[in-house]
Every structure is written in structure tokens, then in C-alpha cells.
Design a protein that fits this description.
Layout: E1 3-5, E2 20-22, E3 38-40, E4 55-57, E5 72-74, E6 89-91, E7 105-107, E8 122-124, E9 139-141, E10 155-157, E11 171-173
Parallel strand pairs: 1-2, 2-3, 3-4, 4-5, 5-6, 6-7, 7-8, 8-9, 9-10, 10-11
């Protein structure tokens, strides 16, 4: 019930069901059920053991994710460090690179790149919410919107909107 193409793809898994692993060592380290998971690209979802419903497209996407579920990463190193995070979406080069939190959405080159444990953040635009590490419930739309934010519950809309901001519960448009 699985589709496997590539050296070492789905190599150690014995219980995978309905999975697609395409690329050198895609889903290589999995040892348990990863139902409905798709890994396309060298080392995509390399460490997955039990997380279901993940989609990883691109080299090193969701590289160390072992138990996280319902994550989607498209682009080189998207969600690379996500270990057990759930329901995250990363679209773009190194988007959500350091993320281990839940319910984050990053769209654009390096958006939410340094987010570690922050959750429920939405960043759309190149390097939006770039330095956010632990803050949650932020929304940023625009090139480098909320770039340096460290506080939670902020909204930034526009090119460089809130780029130097660090507080919480603020809005910046323009």
C-alpha cells in the first residue's frame, strides 16, 4: 500500500500504510505507523516514527520530525527542526526552520525562520516574523513585517510594518 522510489526511502519502516516516499532516504528512519504521509525529496521526513498525515516536499523538509502530525512543508528545509510540532504549514525556503511549536503558518522565504516554541502565528511575506522565537498569536503580512517582534498577540500589515517592534498586543499598518 506504499509507493517508494529512491535509495533508502522508507527503509526501516515495517508498519507504514498508504505512504509515499520518493527520494534518497525519504522517510528513512521511520519505525512505526506513519499513515497517509508523503515525503518527496532527499531526507524528507527522515526521522518520522509515528506522526501521521504529514506532507514534506523538498530536501531536508521536516528532517527531524519524529512524532509530529498534520504538518505540511514545501520548500528547502521547511520545518527542518520540527520535532513533535503539529498542524504547521511552511511554504518557502527555510520557512519555520527552527519551529517546534504548533498551529503556525509561514508563507515566504524564511518567514518565521527562528520560531521555536511559539504557536498560532501566521506570517505571509519574505522574512515576516523572522526573529519571533517563543511569542504566540501574531499575524504579519508583508515583506519583513514584524521582523523583530518578540511579544504576543500583534498584527502587522504592510512592507516593513512593525519591523522594529518588540511589545505585545499592538497593531501596525503601513
Amino acid at each position: 500500500n506504499n509507493t517508494v522510489v529512491g535509495r533508502g526511502a522508507l527503509y526501516t519502516s515495517t508498519a507504514a500504510v498508504g505512504c509515499v516516499a520518493i527520494g534518497h532516504q525519504a522517510m528513512y528512519g521511520g519505525t512505526a505507523t506513519q499513515a497517509g504521509t508523503v515525503a518527496i525529496g532527499k531526507s524528507a521526513l527522515n526521522a518520522l516514527t509515528s506522526g501521521a498525515g504529514n506532507v514534506a516536499v523538498g530536501m531536508n523538509t521536516l528532517l527531524v520530525n519524529d512524532t509530529g502530525y498534520y504538518n505540511t512543508a514545501i520548500g528547502y528545509e521547511g520545518l527542518k527542526a520540527c520535532v513533535g510540532g503539529a498542524a504547521n504549514t511552511a511554504l518557502g525556503y527555510q520557512t519555520l526552520l527552527a519551529n517546534t511549536g504548533n498551529n503556525n503558518t509561514g508563507v515566504g522565504f524564511q518567514s518565521l525562520k527562528t520560531n521555536s516554541s511559539g504557536g498560532q502565528n501566521t506570517a505571509v511575506g519574505q522574512e515576516s516574523l523572522f526573529t519571533n522565537a517563543t511569542a504566540s498569536q501574531n499575524t504579519a503580512m508583508g515583506h519583513q513585517a514584524g521582523y523583530t517582534t518578540t511579544g504576543s498577540s500583534n498584527t502587522y500589515v504592510g512592507h516593513y510594518a512593525g519591523k522594529g517592534a518588540a511589545g505585545a498586543e499592538s497593531e501596525c499598518v503601513g
